[in-house]
Structures are given as structure tokens and as C-alpha cells.
Please model this.
Amino acid sequence: MAIISRGFHGRRPAPGRDLPPGQYEVHDFPVLSAGPTPRVTHEDWKFTLRTETGTEHTWDWARLMEMPGESPTVDLHCVTKWSKFGTRWEGVSLDLLMEGVETAAEFALVHSYGGYTTDLPLEDLLDGKAWIAHRYDGEELAPEHGGPARLLVPHLYLWKSAKWVRGIDLLLDDEPGFWEGLGYHSYGDPWREQRYQGD
Amino acid sequence: MDTDGTRDQVYEDGNALGGPLSEIFAVDLTAAVGRCAGCGATGPMARLRVYDRAPGLVARCPDCGRVVLRLVRGPDTAWLDLQGASSLAIPLGPPS
Model:
């Protein structure tokens, strides 16, 4: 009888769940933050898409809630090496928000309440790959996890999924965000372990 | 941690910079007096609020909240950003 060894992988996730290289699985939901948590009420919340020509498309909370929602269940991969499988979200697809927005931009710079920024190619926000998420695990998104609403781009390291999102600038040229300007990778694909510049 | 929202306000004081910065600088920078480029407040670096539950260290001005210093330690490189500090006064002994 052949013995098949899969080798030693440390803390191995459940069968059928693959970890990107260098990651380990967690079952809690760690809170990482580069500053104090902004407290933004639904009344004050606004989200603005600004094109490279300066045209602004703005949604308030009521308008966001009127839009058709989606309920993605996704795996999260943080650059600090934890991964969390099967997280359940509700939100609005960026595809819907980008409908009717005329742009030649290839890059996006995401802005958050509190001043955080992160950049990524615009195409990584489209085709069902990204949402403005406002509910987590059946409840309103808690402030420490980015509520009222955060960006959710689960195919990239979690620092790209900006908490407390307030807007996205659509740019012709890439502009590094908060961590991308200080050593972290400009793209951040967990499956290629793109943690730092040069990875 | 409690659940009333205070958990996300947790930060260390600027002495938490001492160990990581000692890898880069020969002097103890936590005793240096820095000027915040945002509000102009001056004070010892040890007075900064350091958020270390993040992909790097983020030290903020206790008066205005602006980022004064950021430090990322990669496997073979450290990245240091001091653009939020308009000056640093570093106590030294007499020139040798």
C-alpha cells in the first residue's frame, strides 16, 4: 500500500481549503489598524468615485442601500500571514457603481475616512472581483472591521480592502498608497506571495 | 478585549519605537524631541502613539493624530518614513 505524504505544512486548513504560501489559518477575525478607528454615521457617510477628468459620482448611504446587493463568501489573506476562510459579506459590486462612469483610467487610488489610502489596477475592481461591503456575517459591519462600509477585494492581500472607504480616484498613472509607498508590494497577490517591493 | 469599541483605540506609547529603531540608529531616538509636521507640536518621540497591530509601525502625534513616523521591517530591508516629523533634536554627548 502506497503511503502518500503531503509533507509538513504546519497548521493545515480543512481539506479543500488551500492556503497561499507563507500563510496560516485563523478562526477569529484579527483587527489591524494604522490609527484610531473613524466613527462615521450612516447620515454622514458618502462615497465618491472621481474620474481622471475630475467628474465626481457620489453615493450617500440611502442611495447605496437602494442598489442591488450581492452576498459574496470569500477567503481573506492578510500580509501579516493570517488567512480566514469562508467569510460572509453583503455589499454592492464595484461593477454596478462603475456603470455609467466614463473613464480611461487604468489605476485606482482608494481613500478612507481617517486618511488611509491604497492603490491597485482598476481592472482588479471590476468583473465581480470587488465590492463596497457593509454587512459581515449577517450583521452591520462593525467599525473596527471598517464599518459603515469597506472595500472588499479578496483576491489581493487584505491591506487593499480599505476599511472606512470614502472614495476612489480613477487615475491614468499609478500612485502608491499608504503601505505601497513604504516597502509593500504595489499589487499584492497572496498566491505569488507579493508582500514587499521586489517580491 | 471589550466590545464597546475601545479595543480599536489601543496603541503603545513611543517607547515601543525603541527596539525597532535601535536596529537602524546608534542613538536612542525615543529620547529625541520631534516636531510634528502637521501641527507643529514638539515633544519626545516617546510621547507618540504607536499603532503596531498593522503591517508596519505607525507613530502618530498625540495632539493632532497625524502620522509622524512609519517603519516597515521586511526580510532584508527596513523602510522608514519621517516626513511627518519636520525636525528631530537628538541628545548627544560632547563631540568626540
About this structure: Confidence is low (pLDDT under 50) at residues 1-5 of chain B. Strands of chain B lie at 12-13, 33-36, 42-44, 49-51, 57-60, 67-73, 78-81, 85-89. The longest helix of chain B spans residues 18-22. The interface with chain A takes residues 5, 7-9, 11, 51, 53-56, 58, 60, 65, 67, 70, 72, 74-75, 77, 79, 81 of chain B (CB under 8 Å).
